[in-house]
Write a structure and sequence with these properties.
By secondary structure, the protein is an alpha/beta fold. It has nine helices and ten strands.
């Protein structure tokens, strides 16, 4: 893989992410991929409480709503006997409106507190194409309602810049030291069309680059790494849309080089090795050798936790 790294330097960030810091991720399904890497490496991480959200304006509105008690977090909608939210993925659902609102309020309490205490917020935008109801409301998911219910619209870069600038101001007010990292998802929205997908990604890239003048805001080139550095369809799954595990691992390596110290990278690898040992199948669990092996794993777990590592079950 190292042969792909020619002519693509990425500047080291002026801050480091360390174990024990609260890391929040929100946005497209690529956020979930990176969140899993954080989790596997023992970091304190939360991601996408409403499921995947692709559009930058929906993400910005969601974060602002989390921090503003005067604004409702969701707009419930019913499809058959299932209650959904226009702002959320269908993974966020309930079987009554009251249950849905109760779940939303719990998320609001949890994430409002997390945003006030977090060290890092990683936002992954996926597409500049948005779907609007006849009321003018932008939705995060169409929930398989008829296409005639929506107007598809390509957001201008300036719209995105304004929305995120307002969001950043709100976040700075409650957590001035929060580091915000923007990235553009390498997942290709080819249902919009290849030309349209590139037009959409271009607007996203233009917008998030303009935000780098903000304090504590940086840009990580996930999209450029997959499209311009890996640069081959073998790094996409058979749908030719989603990056493979190998591609995600490579992006994670580049992310690690950018935002982790050498000591943190070493500790990340130690945690991954611990999980590999823990998942090793013991053939003779009552043997002396197995007892010693299991005890060594427990000792390693305690040592890692003393270093601020979060050990997932």
């Amino acid at each position: 893989m190292d042969s792909f790294r020619l002519n693509f330097p990425i500047e080291k960030a002026d801050f480091s992410i360390e174990h024990g810091q609260q890391v929040l991720l929100i946005g497209s399904c690529f956020s979930d991929e990176i969140a899993l890497k954080f989790k596997e490496s023992g970091h304190l991480v939360s991601a996408n409480p409403f499921g995947t959200i692709f559009h930058p304006l929906v993400i910005a509105n969601f974060i602002k709503s989390l921090l503003d008690d005067s604004v409702p977090l969701i707009s419930p909608v019913q499809r058959d006997d299932v209650f959904l939210a226009w702002e959320a993925n269908s993974t966020f659902h309930a079987y009554s409106e009251s249950e849905l609102l109760e779940k939303a309020n719990a998320i609001k309490l949890e994430w409002k507190s997390a945003l006030q205490d977090a060290s890092i917020l990683l936002i992954t935008v996926g597409t500049a194409f948005g779907y609007y109801l006849q009321t003018g409301e932008l939705v995060g998911n169409c929930h398989k309602f008829p296409a005639a219910n929506f107007e598809k619209r390509l957001s201008e870069s300036n719209e995105i810049i304004i929305a995120f600038t307002e969001m950043i101001a709100v976040l700075k007010n409650v957590n001035p030291s929060l580091k915000i990292v923007f990235t553009v998802s390498p997942v290709r929205h080819i249902k919009d069309g290849l030309i349209e997908n590139n037009q959409s990604k271009a607007r996203l890239i233009e917008a998030v680059h303009a935000l780098q003048n903000e304090v504590n805001v940086s840009y990580f080139p996930s999209y450029e790494i997959v499209v311009d550095e890996l640069r081959d369809y073998r790094f996409y799954k058979t749908d030719r849309v989603h990056p493979t595990e190998e591609a995600v691992a490579y992006v994670w390596m580049r992310f690690s080089e950018t935002y982790f110290s050498a000591a943190t990278i070493a500790l990340n690898e130690e945690v991954v090795q611990y999980h590999s040992m823990k998942n090793h199948k013991v053939l003779f669990p009552k043997s002396n050798a197995s007892t010693k092996f299991l005890q060594s794993i427990e000792n390693q777990r305690l040592q890692l936790m003393n270093k601020g590592v979060i050990i997932a079950n």
